[in-house]
Specification:
alpha+beta, Deoxyribonuclease I, Chain A, four-stranded mixed sheet
Length: 127
Amino acid sequence: MAMKNWNTLSWKIRGINSQPKWDAIKRKIEERACSIFCIQETKREHFDIRYIRNFAPKRIDCFDFIPSQGASGGILLVWNSSVFSGVVIKRHLFAITAQFISSHNLCSWKLSTVYGPCTELDRSNFI
């Protein structure tokens, strides 16, 4: 079976609510030709595909997220469904785990994106 390398991007963004952040994310996705990207500390309670279009190319069309708790936290996992079929298999307050299957060679693998909290109480729950 032919092997293929896929580019992923993982970024602790510290808030995704401004045009400069959107532009920076979009540049990195295009520069690295990413099929999957994970963003931690989004500081957003909700995502929909319309909002994601602010920073993601149209080819990246599937996502899941963990909402922020107030002004901190939040995780976003986004992928290109023409490259991978993806299924979120676990969601926790501080992590998302998805299983991906390559459209190219049917290779299956799992990816977890994690955001460790800053406050003492949340950090204890995280550990």
